[in-house]
Amino acid sequence: DVGMTQSPLSLPVTLGQPASISCRSSQSLVYSDGNTFLHWLQQRPGQSPRRLIYRVSNRDSGVPERFSGSGSGTDFTLKISRVEAEDVGVYYCLDGSHWQFGQGTRLEIK
Amino acid sequence: EVQLVESGGHLVQPGGSLRLSCAGSGFTFSRHDMNWVRQAPGKGLEWVANVKYDGSEKHYADSVKGRFAISRDNAKDSLYLQMNSLRVEDTAIYFCASDQNWDIGPWGQGTLVTVSS
């Protein structure tokens, strides 16, 4: 099984400051067709998850431009350029080929 | 609007059964693989089961294999999860979610299943 490891697991951030979450997989996520099915989800308190970024770096409709995804192979990063209050919640990376989630990173305002 | 709406969750005794439903709208349901994902209280996300767009293949997490059955009815744009021999550790919010790999990747709002005597 592919293992997904996120860091940090807790991320206190000052409003307006950048934030970065790392996701590392135990094996390459490059699929046989050349696609990399690594996605990022956001779960705000009391809400269901919603996808923010798909296939490493594609922002979903309605997702603010301050969110960006990058990476390749086994190492991936979600960045928030300037954290806003509405960004509080838990962020998960997801290997979409094997439906393996990272443990989640809890973002809070410092 | 692309939407998934789950229903069917409630309190059930250990050993009991429950059937969850998920209704899709706003997208071509029959073209998407579909999944059930659960979240135990205060915990992270756990994939439960998957069914291919045409129902031809089904896969399950080891924790539910032999007890849960996923199915779909594309004529009704609906996904189902039949849960038998329920255990206390199956207590969770159950979400339906489409295949996340392409341009749309909706999630439902979830339905709560509580297994307790």
Keywords:
heterodimer, A: 110 residues, mainly beta, 49% strand, B: six-stranded mixed β-sheet, four-stranded antiparallel β-sheet, globular
Fold topology:
The complex is a heterodimer of chains A (110) and B (117).
Chain A: E1 4-7, E2 10-13, E3 19-25, E4 38-43, E5 50-54, E6 58-59, E7 67-72, E8 75-80, E9 89-95, E10 100-101, E11 105-109
Parallel strand pairs in A: 2-11
Antiparallel strand pairs in A: 1-3, 3-8, 4-5, 4-9, 5-6, 7-8, 9-10, 9-11
Chain B: E1 3-7, E2 11-12, E3 18-25, E4 34-39, E5 46-51, E6 58-60, E7 68-73, E8 78-83, E9 92-98, E10 111-115
Parallel strand pairs in B: 2-10
Antiparallel strand pairs in B: 1-3, 3-8, 4-5, 4-9, 5-6, 7-8, 9-10
Account of the protein in words:
The complex is a heterodimer of chains A (110) and B (117). Chain A has 110 residues and is mostly beta strands. Chain A contains no helices and 11 strands. Chain A has strands spanning 4-7, 10-13, 19-25, 38-43, 50-54, 58-59, 67-72, 75-80, 89-95, 100-101, 105-109. In chain A, the strands form 2 sheets. In chain A, strands 2, 4, 5, 6, 9, 10 and 11 form a 7-stranded mixed sheet that branches. In chain A, strand 9 and strand 10 (100-101) form a beta hairpin. Chain A is globular. The N and C termini of chain A lie far apart (36 Å). In chain B, strands 2-10-9-4-5-6 form a 6-stranded mixed sheet, with no helix packed on it. Chain B has a 4-stranded antiparallel sheet with strand order 1-3-8-7, with no helix packed on it. Chain B is an all-beta fold. The radius of gyration of chain B is 13 Å and the shape is globular. Chain B contains no helices and 10 strands. Chain B has strands at residues 3-7, 11-12, 18-25, 34-39, 46-51, 58-60, 68-73, 78-83, 92-98, 111-115. The N and C termini of chain B lie far apart (39 Å). In chain B, 0% of the residues lie in helices and 46% in strands. Classes of the chains: A mainly beta (110), B mainly beta (117). Chain A binds chain B through residues 35, 37, 39, 41, 43, 48-51, 54-55, 60, 90, 92, 94, 96-97, 99-101, 103-104, and chain B through 35, 37, 44-47, 50, 95, 97, 99-103, 105, 107-110.
